[in-house]
Design a protein that fits this description.
alpha+beta, Beta-Lactamase, six-stranded antiparallel sheet, five-stranded antiparallel sheet, elongated
Length: 612
Amino acid sequence: MLVRKLQIRLPRRITAYFLLFGLAALVWLSIGAVYVVHSVSDSRSESTALRMFGRASDRVVLAYLRNKGADLQATLAEICSQCGAEYCAVISPTGEYLGHSNRSLVGKPVSERGSTAERWGEVVRVEYVNDSGLPIYEYGSPLKSNGKVFGSLRLGFSQPNVWHYVRAGFHFAPLAFFGPACCMLAGAVLLNRMVRPVADIEQQLFQVATSPSLESCELREVPNVGAAALGWNRMVQRRFNGPSDTLQQRIRQSLDEGRHSRLDAVLNSVPDGVGTTDDDGRLTYTNRPMSVLLALKDVVGAGDGSSEAPAMIEQLVKRWHLSESDALLSPENRDRAVVTELTREENGQRRVARVARHPICIVDGGKHEAVHVWTMRDVTQQKLAEEMRDQFVDTATHELRTPLANIKAYAETLALADMIDVEQQKQFLNTINSEATRLARFVDDLLSVSSMELGSLALNKQVTDFARMLNEVVAKVRPQIEEKQQTFEVVFPDKLPEPELDKDKIAAVLVNLLGNAVKYTPESGRVTFRVNFTDQQIEINIEDTGVGIAEDELPKVFDKFFRSQDPRVQEQTGTGLGLALAQEVVRLHGGQITVESEINKGSTFSVLLPRG
């Protein structure tokens, strides 16, 4: 129980504050210790002491030679101060102090202490302990002038031990502990101010957690210290100043709002339209795609199904074609799942949507509420793909069955007939060869379409004699034109450039365009093949006076497997792949192909190719 009370009264952040102030105290103590050590420690290494002793010896000899010892006392005091030595003295050959940093010892006999510890030539180091108990290193050597010894120099350095540092540290103890004490005092005041409201909040929350009901708990405000205390006070004020909701209800409402916002974000990211309707069929919720499909000004929120809410069926009738026999309108299907497809016209094109309705039952507060969940998806592209697939199957079946039937019939005739003259045999064989060529061309078109869809349709560009290629194209289509007794007008400039392109593929494009012009132009009609060029591009125009293309079909002429619904076009054989392949070949060359047409007046296909 004591541990739990401490956990209530002391929040976890107190640990961080204690660590912070403890670190500050340690830093302060470290600074004091460094200051004490720096103040009481002035020991020198052996090399430094010898170097100082050598310089001091030279100065004493120089001072003795200049003034015969008149300023010896001042020189020794200055040397002692600069070297940081305990004392500096000059001893006569008879054993008396000629000079000493302590004037009271001048003229008195020298008392030798300690024993020799180290020797470097004439320099001797003696170790002893002075009257204060401090170890002393005394360096001594003779002083000579003109080869004669007139005395010796003694220089003593103190060597403090650990206890000396401890004793010296007591002098600075008040300074070392005063700073941390101030930090701890300030930290205690700050912690007391911050901890009190937080501890009070945690104590009230503990009561809430252990009480059987939230209403029996007494929640009170705390001093406004920090964001946590301010937020707690606002929540308590809302509890007492609100209309009639309890804090528990408000918390539940807040959680529900957060859950609804996340659900809205998920549903709005779904491409399908999603909505709900109440038992009367009025919309209570729509995501953004559903609002677009129904042409609503804005999304419908989670409402209560009031009379102002739009009805789902009315919105569908306004925007989509909904027949009276549709399954959505049948009373028998009210409690059943229904899936149907609706259509409408938009910009001259048919749009298709798949609509699904699923009944569900929601239990809220013991009440059962019958609602419907609606989903709506635009399946126009899927329908177009299915139509193109069906059209391709029909076209492929026709293009394969007809030539195979002809080949089989003529081959059986050749095999079974006994009396067939040579000319008739040649005619049968030419028919078989023509139908086989037709099959091979259809297979080649299918392979080219597959390569085009995979992006692997490659070009073999090379410098091309454009005039020669155009003449070859004209030679290939001229027999068809003569067979239908059409007028064929060829307009070429006197001199044509030699562009870099794939000769075979461009020739196939032109043969296909000219072949279509001849195929869909009636007898005695006109086909014009015109070529012009500029500095940047080559322009090829193929005009005819044929059946033309309806305005609503013009955007689809370059689609794969597309063929016009005009009966005059349907009676002609074709796969619907030629123009799609032509467009892809021209695009790979960096050019463009366009068409202009008017029904019953003819068409003009224009091909623009770069000259370079």
